[in-house]
Amino acid sequence: MTMKKTIAVTMMAAAISTAAVGGAYAAPGSASAVQIVQGTLNVNGMDTQVRTIASGSVQLVAVRDLALSLGAELGHNGSSYYMKLNDSTVEFKVGSKQITVNGSAQQLALPVLNVQGVNYIDSAVVTALGASMDADGGISTVNLLEAIDSAQWIGKGKLLASTYGEAGRTDYIVDAKTGKHEVLLVSVDTSDLAIAPDGARAAYVDGEGFVHILDLASKQDSKLGEDNSIKSELQWSADGTALYFLQGDKSSVVAKISAADGTVTKLLEDKVDYKSNLRVEGGTMAYTVVKTGKVTTDDKKSVDEDAISIDMTGTEPQVYFYNVYQGDNKPVQLTTSTEDKIFLELSPYGSAYYVSVPEEGSATVVSVNKEKQTAIAVAEGDVMQAVKHKNKLYVLTAGETNNLVYEIDLSSGSKKLINTLSDSVTSILPYGNQLALIEDGILYTFVGGSWKAITR
Which residues contact 361 (CB under 8 A, 6 or more apart)? Predict the structure, then answer.
């Protein structure tokens, strides 16, 4: 038996908590008595009861109890029995150590045992059936979604995970506790889904520029209005009555579309191109602008001499602020610094936050207010990400040996360390008191006091 299989068997035996419930019975062909014990298995987050027999380090489980706990199909063909779970079928015979898994022979540590008319099988059969097990012994029978490209919270207990392929994008609704998932949308040339604040709807822009509203429960897809202008960075208003977006092939206009009737209203049309990172809070908005480089030519040289040069001075992204409801006002440029600015967020209390990435040195989180005053909000480690949820800003930084998560209260500006993570964590997804993360391309949630992979 390989070391990997040995560890799996040991974990499986340890996963069954037991309590004696009956007397000792003599097994057929055995000179020793066996003790039947009531055990508990945690399957997909739920405790289930199974009868067990311990033999040294090996735990035998009543076949019928195990099948019921896992939700596996149980049947027999003549003198042999089978259990089927998802795409795996295990066949076995009473008195034999040998099983076949999808037609391939494998060996169990002990033969299948019949005691008082009940068949007991080595608990290692759980992994042979394709079920997975976490570090705490919890069993998952779900075929986990593989190789996701992005994820976001839908609401309490559910996430949206997306995969991209040659045929387009597939969006899934994923249970945050078990990893059980279902297809929500398969689409081509569409924007990412924007989840409504109520978690009941999502919106996206199709390849022709039309906005669609998708009901997450019924999966009913409805086109919203008849406007098919170019739209990017679609996002919901806090009350769910409208969607904001950047309009035009150069993202020069900020507009909104009514979620009720599809009416489009332009909020800012200042003829400034290449807006991005749009963030809206009530009647205020923040965004960045990137100017194009200045092209110059030398008239004294021929075209063949490649005399064209581009001056990139002043093309660094700058943060702007705009109040929709303040009459006759213009956008205010809040920053002039030359470093890159990413992960822009807008506080409901008037300040903008962004990750400042200099050419040399570590990235930091910087706040800037309407008076153009800046302050460093997080300087610990090398900042990798900043993401806002309601009135909190969550920051992922790379420390010396671990990645760290800080929480900033946007009302007071106070900061505290809330989590220490592996240095291979690349993204965090906060939602209220819940936190998900992506590590090595796998989505994890915090379940029962430990991190659990809900994709693979």
Answer: none
